[in-house]
Amino acid sequence: MRRYREFHRESIDRPEDFWRREAARIHWQTPFTEVLDRSNPPFARWFAGGRTNLCFNAVDRHLDTRAQQNALVYVSTETGIERRYTYADLHAEVNRMAAVMRSLGVQRGDRVLIYLPMIPEAVFAVLACARLGAIHSVVFGGFAAPSLAARIDDAKPTLLVSADAGARGGKVIDYTPLVDEAMARAEHAPPRVLLIDRQLAPERLNAPYLIDYEPLREQHYNAHVPCEWLESNEPSYVLYTSGTTGKPKGVQRDVGGYAVALAASMEYIFEGRAGDTMFTASDIGWVVGHSYIIYAPLLAGMTTVMYEGTPVRPDGGIWWRLVEQHRINLMFTAPTAIRVLKKQDPALLRSADLSSLRTLFLAGEPLDEPTAVWISDALGKPVVDNYWQTETGWPMLAIQRGVEALPQKVGSPGVPCYGYDLVLRNEHTGEPCAQGEKGVITLSYPLPPGCMQTVWGDDARFVKTYWESVPGQQVYSTFDWGVQDENGYVTILGRTDDVINVAGHRLGTREIEEAISSHAAVAEVAVVGVNDTVKGQAALAFVVLRDAGAAADPAAADKLAAALAATVDRQLGAIGRPARVHFVSMLPKTRSGKLLRRAIAALAEGRDPGDLPTIEDAAALQQIREAVEPTGKA
Ligand code: AMP
């Protein structure tokens, strides 16, 4: 067994030696000339000069040894459809999709926006892009038209791939009207939208730019599209994520570094082996979906299970039955899902045969102790919390069981993963924190392979946002608070910025505020995250109206609150909808006009907001207090 401490130390002291060894996990069409090009910090170019392809490594490379093994098992409890694709099937489908994309003009370096529900074609589309050397940008299917349009304008795609409809909890969501609105709003709308017609939408829109996939797939049924050999540092994808401003950032990732990092994580963190089956219950629109539904299991020659549906339909035993039926070895989801399942009949879990399951991985939001204890007792298997973010692409903190099965510490995702020089720093001085002192979690240069290369189209934003926010140090900021103990275990203490985490989904409070502000009745709004027993956090909106009388009586206030929620649904998507809207006549601000968000959040959680010497008018605090009290006038 390797020792964690030495292993981690080597990865930091001698990253070139460490990652040169790991690079052997993937196929290089042309070997790299340099493990790490550090000539332009904070940018890092891993495996410079090497040429490879993510699709080749995820699919083609396995054809000799596992063509008949399942690569993708698809289960939809929304439509009742279940499909299995061997590596040979996957290869054929990806070639068809790539040929269709190519026939629609997609070339190396072009962007393809993928706005799809959880269907196998989403995986084919992602891998087809990788094959062609096109840059995919998956937009979560729950985002509304204006959000989709903003991403179109940033990515300027050659093609958009979408479907007639998605489905969630038994409800069909028509996609074509959303796509149509986004196409109309966007300045850089692509000429064509490739449509996967699931025949779910009762009334599918017909627009001149829509092209049906199925007939084209037939035309290209026997196509073989060669893999484009990309230099390791060419972009593989852009994935938008929320930050402090209302404008989402396009997290750009490379090809070679990402492939190596994911393949290594499969062994060292997930203990996944070729032939294993992994079920990651997330969405392809999030980074967990990119890394651990699609790429990592396939790079490792495993079977990945893709699931469309909720964890409680048809009943709360569905995921456990999937484990039994598909002999799932590794499962990965967010703590929210476990909190939801905890409320279900425990017999549903006990009656399933879970003998195949080795480990449950949880990430995306803090794992609270009662949930951690409940699920590890119920399963009787290791539960591995892991901490990371869209930007890093793979875990930063975890008990790396494939390195050394260190003991778990409740409330902590564990110790820094190999490759990450993780340092907690004082927010004012930038100096490393003492043990037990709260600080900003930072990463020293260089970030390991697999992490973001830059912000799409905006190197300056990458440097300024991530590398210039800690005083006096050029280090990467995660924008998370943490505290580290004497054994290296880090506990996460929330975000340093205005990002909140609802059910594992990362949302910028600015984005929600902008959506609410677009309603004519609104003068000002503050959105904060507060603790929620199921979703981790919930968004609360405090709204100042242009005409205070508009919410004078409870019925009018309810109606207006519903209208604001509907505005968020339309502008951003239902995931951004605030749990509650409170009307106030003023918001707590500093004398220079800055919103005192932390104070608002503290009051909304019933905590003391602390000393606020710079506050403009302390009466605003009282309004927040009254608004959130159950007997308050909101
Ligand atoms: P995302 O980029 O959407 O994956 O969100 C990343 C953010 O989620 C991190 O910056 C943390 O704030 C939070 N997060 C992710 N994983 C964990 C975890 N295991 N424990 C606590 N917070 C987490």
UniProtKB/TrEMBL annotation:
Keywords carried by this UniProt record: ATP-binding, Ligase, Membrane, Nucleotide-binding, Transmembrane, Transmembrane helix
Single GO MF descriptor: ATP binding
Domain (Acetyl-coenzyme A synthetase N-terminal): residue spans on this chain: 4-58
UniProt key word RNA-binding: no
AMP-binding enzyme C-terminal domain ranges (all copies): 511-594
Alphabetical GO biological process terms: propionate catabolic process, 2-methylcitrate cycle
Signal peptide positions (record): none
Disulfide bond as UniProt keyword: no
Transmembrane segments: 112-134
UniProt domain AMP-dependent synthetase/ligase: residue ranges: 64-445
PROSITE patterns: AMP_BINDING
NCBIfam families, alphabetized: PRK00174.1, PRK10524.1, propion_prpE
Similarity section: Belongs to the ATP-dependent AMP-binding enzyme family.
Protein name: Propionate--CoA ligase
Organism encoding this protein: Paraburkholderia caffeinitolerans
